[in-house]
Amino acid sequence: MVKFSKQLDMQLVPEWRGAYCQYKLLKKDLKLITFNWHLMPECPVAPSNPPFTLTRRKSPWSSVDVIKVHCQQPENTDLPLYHTELLAPVAPAAYLKRFFSRLDAELNKVNTFYKTKEEEFLQRGLLLDKQMFALIEVKNLLKHDHSHSSAGQSDDNSDCRRNSSSKLSTDPKDSVTQTAMLCAPSTMRSYRNETVGNAETRKDLKGSHVRLNIPHVSATATLSTLSQMLWEDVLRQAKKSATFYGGKVDIVLSQRKVQRAENMLRAAFVEFYRGLGFLKNYSSLNMVACAKILKKYDKITGMLVSGKYMYHVENSYMGASRKIVELMDKVEAIFTEHFAQENRRHAMSALRPMQQKASHTVTFLFGLFSGCSLALLTSFGILLKVAGDYNTATKDNYLRSIFPTFGMLVLIVLHIFMYGWNVYSWRLKGINYAFIFEFSPGSELRYREVFLVCTCLTTMVFGAMVMHLSMLSTLLKWQSHYVDLFPFMIILAFLVVLFNPLNMWYRSSRWFLLKVLLRIVSAPLYKVVLVDFFLADQLTSQVPMLRNMEFVLCYYCGGYYRSRDHEACTSSRNVYMAWTYIIALLPYWLRFWQCVRRCMDEEDYTHLANGAKYLSAMTAVALKIAYGRQKSQASLALFVIASTIATAYQLYWDLVIDWGLLVRKSANPWLRDQLVLDHKWIYFLSMVLNAILRLAWLQSLTQFQIGSPQMDTYITDFVFACLEIIRRGHWNFYRLENEHLNNVGHYRAIKTVPLPFEELNPMA
Q: Cβ neighbours of residue 470 under 8 Å, at least 6 residues apart?
């Protein structure tokens, strides 16, 4: 049976951890009472039973009032504060007072937090109530404009539009957002069973104007806005348009815009319901925690006080309030009626998505593929040793043409492996990575699934390496050039797995990855969220893989594998080097435009400083490539200066901004106030390790090589590429730790979903 302390850790909301009842601290207070129970005096009322017992017999303290719970009402708040007074002369009284003092403080804390969050959700619910009412009126208006069934109503609406010309907002921001001024018709539609749309809401909205505000989160929306800004002075007469004679812009009220508004409101209701569920679960867990700890107290001391204290807990604001439950019922009714076509089953599946169940099959396959990977890697090492006597030309061809292909695949697999360790570490330390990345509830890959994907792909790669080397060895006497197609076939297998449209191999996660990659490539046309720039940062660590991809595409698509001419791609020096610059600088360039887009959306110029960091990195990478192409004193000096500036810039941003460390006057000097890891020295070691790995570019100066000179620089470049991926995986943990602690500091447990309608104050 799982202990309640572990059950509490598993079920609590990570971002609200500090607001929960500190059950473990209360258990420590009980242990102090247990260690001093021999100091317990005789009961003031002489009983016939022994003065102290841990058995189920009636306790001598059952007939004595040991405590009295006072409910005090402060002047500055409407929440009562609870204070427990010990009545009986009990020793050790100091430990008992300490226990009840902490218990009272925890009860007052959870009551205050519950009421604060409840008020926030009630305000959000009122806002969603108005949004829902506005959506229904907009849909009715659109339906009426399409049908033209009533000429009188049409005239009324036309008059309404003409009268609203003076109410058109002149805010400059309106020129970069899709807006539509809507005037509600005279006939109002009420909600079914009055679940929403109360009299107050209808009174607030009747006769008022709302703006349909669709944020530009996609490339299509951004491009359409730009085209509208360019052609709004030319195209005045558009189909299905509402012309404001006093304004300067034609506003198009289309079915697509209304549908997008409905989708936005649907997502807002789902997230709102999720937050209500969190608060309801918060109340239940704290109630159970109080009951459990008081039961332990009764068992240890023999004083039956749980019934009296729990009476006050159950009648406290947290235990007596039913507003959240009633609000959840209303949301379920609204969602079923307006977003699920009266199908309650579909509505509840959207509001309460099923969580993934742990599968023994995943664990079994993970172990199976892990064993296969180790066996194939061992076989590859043996074959490499046995086939070590084949001619030098074959060795040179393998390193220059085949090794980049397998190296590219190994770098991808290594990055997946590091992400699996990240997920395992985040879950172990209670970092809510699924919320930070905005994964759909129940669809995120847990560390077992990530490791399963990693080991499966590793088995494919190592199997191809063993098969290819076996055919190249003198043992099999295989000299066909078609052997070199094996690495390319593995690449095709990777692509088939990634783009497979069938509902298998974690399709939702693969689709999510492809959508994020599309948003990265289309920067700055898409609104940038955390998962976008997080994955873009991963791509900046995969520059060696991208450069290998450039060679692989040239080698195989150009047909040079038939003659095993690995110099054919590099012989056209100018074209190949031009593409080398483009591919090496592309991840930094995309990341720079993401920073520009975030600066435009959030109006925070810190993002421009972050973009300058990537520009400095681009300069350093470009000069490094130029120095490798033509070694001269001038190029060396420029390369060293640019790399030094970029490294210092990146180290400062890593440690201070991304990790939130090096805060001198904090609770943990030179770290930060809150830490997830228990040992502080790990943070200092991580900072030093990150700095050392950031200095990997010094290898270009020292000409350090791994292996024999015949291996050229391929093995060395591969090793340093692996070290960069390891550094990125190490960086990932602390980056999300800092983001999680920021969410915890603001008790931010649900994402903020933008709402489609903005209410405007009607003019007299």
A: 383, 476
